[in-house]
Amino acid sequence: MSQPPKDRPARDPARDPARDRAREEDALRGRIPPGKAAKAPPPPPPLPVEEEGVEPLPEPEGPTEIIDTEYTIGQDNIEGTGRVPYDIHNPVFGISAAAVVIFTIVTLMFPGQLEPAFSGLRDALTGNLDWFFMLAGNVFVLLCLGLIVSPLGSVRLGGPDATPDFNLTGWFAMLFAAGMGIGLMFYGVSEPLGHFEAAMGGTVTEGGLRTDWAPLGGAEGNAEEARRLGMAATIFHWGLHPWAIYAVVALALALFAYNKGLPLTLRSVFYPIFGERIWGWPGHVIDILAVLATTFGLATSLGLGAEQATAGLAFLFGLGDGNVTKVVLIVAITLVAAVSVVVGVEKGVKRLSELNMGLAVLLLIFVIVVGPTMAILTGFFANLGAYATELLPLSNPFGRDDDNFRQGWTAFYWAWWISWSPFVGMFIARVSRGRTVRQFLTAVLIVPSLISVLWMTALGGTAIDITLGGYTGILDAPLELELFQMLNQLPLAAITSFVGIVLVVVFFITSSDSGSLVIDTIAAGGKINAPVPQRIFWVGIEGAVAIALLLGGGLIALQAMAVSTGLPFTVVLLGACYALVKGLIAERRELA
């Protein structure tokens, strides 16, 4: 039901700086002081003492198509106020938690014995459905580009009178934070170098099928062409496609929460399709899939982080790099993440994120300055050109024979990004209120993509240069050790390697902490102020799943679960695209 807000005072063009600062602080904490209600909802449940006087989400400002529903956040929740308080959505929390716990127990009961099963699952999904993942990725990119140039791009998140909660500099910095993570640390050296090596080797055919891992047709014996193709393939996996996936989720969440007045959960996006039924089993299934996808997507990243941190400690300090070390490391880091949850977002995640951002920038600048500086700076633009040239061939799922590359790399990546999308999407949605759809999509697609290009060019390009210079130690090392082997060829290797280990560990902590907040928000029916013990529970679950997957099948198991949970959620996101367009059309009609 469409209705403009009633009795709302006109927007004051003379903004009060003190009010703006208070608003920004509240937005950073995930809350905004309440203003005049656009409609009169039932009173919210009482908040903890320190949260009194604030609402979890801001109200729409200006005429918006607020969805008239009798549902209130938390009405289906089960609450307890004993020594361990809880506030969980029934049945989303119970089914999600039970499924993850059962999976973890079964996998830990048979350590190492399930690897063939995980390998078969991963190969079956990526081998038979690579075309589906790739087509879905193309749909997300085309939708974002279409919205940017369409009249729907003028719709403002939060209502036509909403103003951004953060200035451009702060907003770009947070998009940069969302774009950085364990994946860039793990694959920053290994992926460009791996694609370069495979392309240099050219195509290899056995029994009529290609067995090499080169992208497209490779570049046998041509070092410059192999570098160009390898960097284009790497940027393809870290550029527009993953960020279009995140942007679709973030935009849909922001629109239906900030403009439509619905809870900040995935089910709200599907109101144009299911109507009031989203509060029943259709919505339960969507939120359960979101919890499972996020849990296993995070576990994949945490497992990669544990592999790389353990390899770095063994390389730098001579510590053991076996499963015992990995498990001890995951347990220790999970405990630190739990402490971060207890001290709160302001003192925990925010400070750790600021530390990590500073270290990541310093490491990037160091590699650019002491590495092949001119090659990196010119390579940045050359790599962008290579990406633009090869984008269409790399995006095409049909008529290609580079099965290993397409299935083993691209299909896995797309499934991994999709499983991460509720996590990253909700973070981006939380900090993007007040932007137009056009501003939002342009920034979310372009800023993190350019940062990823620079990161891969600096680290991967340096590794390729060192390899072409005759040093083969990076290529010969395991994937998780290649970053440290590359840093070992530069000055101050001990210091930079230690910084690399710290980056991986802190990314682990912040990913676990922030991920637990997103998962708990969904499992609590949209509440962002649910009791702390619930977030501690999810932090522990993420660590346990990462341990189970590492012991149950290592990297193969991590990839298998990311793909298997990403598959059903891909269907969910394709439906979200349709609902998003319907929601934007209704919003645009309200302004006409």
TrEMBL record:
The keyword Chloroplast does not apply. Residues 1-29 have a biased composition (Basic and acidic residues). It is a multi-pass membrane protein. It comes from the Bacteria. The chain crosses the membrane at residues 92-111, 131-154, 166-187, 240-258, 279-304, 324-345, 357-388, 408-428, 440-458, 490-509, 536-560, 566-585. GO terms for cellular component: plasma membrane. It is found in: Cell membrane. It holds the Pfam family BCCT. This is BCCT family transporter.
